[in-house]
Amino acid sequence: MRAGFSWDIPAAYNIAERCCDSWAARQPDRVAIVDLSGGARAEWTYGQLKRASDGLAASLRARGVRQGDRVAVLLPQSPEVLITHLAAHKLGAIILPLFTLFGADALAYRLADSGAAAVVTDAANLDKLMALRPELPSLSEVYCTDAAAEPVRAFWDEIEAAQGLTPARTGAEDPACLIYTSGTTGDPKGVLHAQRFLIGHLPAIEALYGGFAGPGAVGWTPADWAWIGGLMDLAMPCLYYGVPLVSHRMRKFDPEAAYDLMRREAVSAAFLPPTALKLMRQAPAPKGLALEAVFSGGESLGADLLGWGTEVLGAPINEGYGQTECNLVLATSAGSMPVRPGSMGQAVPGHDVAVIDPAGQELPAGELGEIAVRKGTPVMFQRYWNKPEKTAEKFVGDWMRTGDLGRRDADGYFWYESRDDDVITSAGYRIGPTEIENCLVGHPDIVNAAVVGVPDPARTEAVKAYVVLREGADWEGLPAELVERVRARVSPHMAPRLVERIDALPMTATGKVMRRQLREQS
């Protein structure tokens, strides 16, 4: 697949044209979105999506929004999110997705740092936003999808009143999307992507979902579309391929509700983060699921969870790897390649991935180093917003550094070890937490687990495990049983010396375990 692949990046390119207008011109009545977010089921066609995004784009242009300006969207999953994205792209503006659970400080930083000119929100988030407005001189327009008093603009009224639109002409290299990501230190960084980054996702989408755009295909993810996972691992690809996308506001993930939604809507392709899969494993799966492929990413799943997916969900769980700066560059693809449980898979066609040393030199198979992606792939970000020094630090030679440590084996499979600040140094060993966590979660009484290093005078660090128990599990005797499980299944030198129960693991908004927070509280 890699040998026969080459990129075809046109000079002129616009995400809205490819994900909406081209479909509306050919099949205006084709279903684009199945909206369950308001309680009732409603279908949106590509024709309707085009008219609404044209109207919003025309309104924004009339209010002074121009090519290169930032347009923020602060909404949960709903058609209005995608209408705003498409409208921004039609203006050649830069869309700024914001998570609705952000507090005032997080919102203020992102809106001020980006210099956002307009924002679309709803009544639930309006007061929080308006309280910040005096501190945001660049923010000239606020739209609300619910009823609101002036100076806030009524989203739907503006769309209805708007007059015709001639979309801006954009090139593949023109900036399109700004997503903020939190690093290990410092303020969040705005990751700027070009219009081409949609193209960069497509080889992985086709490998991960397999037959994604076949007859009757339907897509859904509980992941919020404010994050690159929910947005680019499923939502935008659905629109691009003409696959109906289910929109549903799930305020807190409920595995039984997720099962019910997938059964009722005959979901065939689902992006389910590891935390969601682990919770679903604890709930009874109904008969009648139509799943053909499940994609997960963010944490390694391990053989037990992969086996459960095939047996219970009736579909392989393929794993993808990337980050906000350069998404979906490694993948497993059941049916296209032998899947090796615990592996991150191989480099996706179109992406060159290697393990490098600190000087940027490729390391041979089997050696531990930093996973890196060669410059030139269209999925790679352009730069960090307002942070040229951080942009420079991200690269060494021809490589973009991921900050993740791993190994590549002789067959081209990559094996994740840890973030470079998550490595545990114990008695001379460098220990990554992932393999231990996978082993612990394989125990029937463990819902989730995280492993960190804690200070130890004799060993430098000792391995400590935090575990979330299933409801009704008996704690007595379980810590010793878990230690022995790791000793037997992984290695004695990796067995936890400390095991602590915890009600819930601290998570980022994208579902990744915050190990640093656990280290700090140990």
From TrEMBL:
Top EC group: ligase
Domain AMP-dependent synthetase/ligase: 21-385
Keywords associated with the record: ATP-binding, Ligase, Nucleotide-binding
InterPro entries: AMP-bd_C, AMP-bd_C_sf, AMP-binding_CS, AMP-dep_synth/lig_dom, ANL_N_sf, Mitochondrial_ACSM
Keyword field contains Repeat: no
GO BP of this protein: acyl-CoA metabolic process; fatty acid biosynthetic process
Protein name: Acetyl-coenzyme A synthetase
Phylogenetic placement of the source organism: Bacteria, Pseudomonadati, Pseudomonadota, Alphaproteobacteria, Rhodobacterales
